[in-house]
């Protein structure tokens, strides 16, 4: 099937989703650990000047018809190369427009965001299709001052946690991405704080920044798995973290 803007992720991205779609070119969150600027061959500063992708909603409309006709039930992730609820989405609302197309077609959607309260604007729509939507957020740091240094435009961690809980209360499946892991102790605490309303954890490492060399990834991975097992939570260990673990700890528990 030749789709237009919805695509099958490859490589590391393929661990997160079977299908994906990027609504914006660039992302105004400005996360210093982001891989997308390098892939786009842009500086981080240039990449933060985000804009809607040309014709993206019309292309989604056409892709939706093809996917529905094929009865494709793979979930479409928004977004890998940007955040679906970055600040410019308040104006353009491309994410809502996409949901209004895809969900009535019977298609499944995953929203991965650091937008916090901004994402709650669409919860009235999401709650109409709880079986088709998965809501996910990236959790990195509890210390707000430290978080702002790494994710200056993203919502505070407390907002993201609150949105996760609200989505869960709507009957929507939830997961949390613990990647990047900047401070292992804070990541473990985030699991403890959120486990009552997070259905799945996806756990990785820190890439692209020199701070990663100072972290004992074997210890963190072992501690994370032990905690998740104690809490009886489903989890997936990303390949970048698996390589630090013993063979017995490499099986994802989904």
Task: Report on this structure.
This protein has 254 residues and is α/β, with parallel strands linked by helices. It contains twelve helices and nine strands. The strands form two sheets. Strands 1-4-5-6-7-8-9 form a seven-stranded parallel beta sheet. It has a two-stranded antiparallel sheet with strand order 2-3. The longest helix has 14 residues, at 56-69. The mean pLDDT is 95.
List the helices and strands and how they pair.
Blueprint (H helix, E strand, L loop, with lengths): L18 E2 L3 E2 L10 H5 L3 H4 L3 E2 L3 H14 L6 E3 L10 H4 L1 H9 L6 E5 L3 H4 L2 H4 L6 E6 L5 H7 L6 H13 L3 E6 L5 H11 L5 E4 L13 H14 L3 E4 L1 H4 L12
Parallel strand pairs: 1-4, 4-5, 5-6, 6-7, 7-8, 8-9
Antiparallel strand pairs: 2-3
Helix pairs in contact: 3-5, 10-11
Number of strands: 9
Q: What's the CATH class, please?
A: Alpha Beta
Tell me, rounded to a whole number, the average pLDDT: 95
Q: In this structure, how is the largest beta sheet organized?
A: 7 strands, parallel
Could you name the ranges where pLDDT drops below 50 across 5 or more consecutive residues? none
CATH topology: TIM Barrel
Shape: globular
What structural keywords apply?
254 residues; alpha/beta; TIM Barrel; seven-stranded parallel β-sheet; two-stranded antiparallel sheet; 37% helix; globular
Structure summarized in a few sentences:
The chain has twelve helices and nine strands.
């Amino acid at each position: 099937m030749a789709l237009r803007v919805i695509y099958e992720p490859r490589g590391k991205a393929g661990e997160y989703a079977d299908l994906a779609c990027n609504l914006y070119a660039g992302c105004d969150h400005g996360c210093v650990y982001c891989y997308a600027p390098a892939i786009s061959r842009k500086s981080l500063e240039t990449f933060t000047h985000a804009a809607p992708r040309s014709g993206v909603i019309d292309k989604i409309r056409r892709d939706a018809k093809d996917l529905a006709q094929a009865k494709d039930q793979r979930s479409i992730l928004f977004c890998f190369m940007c955040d679906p609820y970055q600040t410019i989405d308040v104006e353009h609302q491309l994410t809502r427009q996409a949901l209004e197309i895809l969900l009535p077609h019977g298609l499944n959607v995953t929203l991965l965001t650091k937008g916090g309260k901004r994402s709650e604007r669409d919860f009235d729509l999401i709650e109409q299709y709880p079986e088709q939507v998965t809501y996910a957020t990236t959790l990195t740091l509890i210390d707000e001052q430290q978080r702002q240094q790494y994710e200056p435009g993203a919502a505070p961690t407390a907002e993201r946690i609150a949105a996760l809980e609200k989505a869960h209360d709507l009957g929507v499946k939830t997961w949390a991405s613990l990647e990047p892991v900047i401070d292992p102790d804070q990541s473990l605490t985030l699991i403890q704080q959120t486990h009552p309303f997070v259905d799945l954890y996806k756990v990785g490492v820190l890439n692209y920044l020199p701070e990663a060399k100072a972290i004992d990834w074997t210890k963190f991975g072992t501690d994370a798995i032990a905690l998740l097992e104690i809490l009886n939570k489903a989890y997936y260990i990303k390949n970048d973290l698996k390589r630090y673990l013993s063979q017995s700890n490499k099986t994802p528990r989904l």
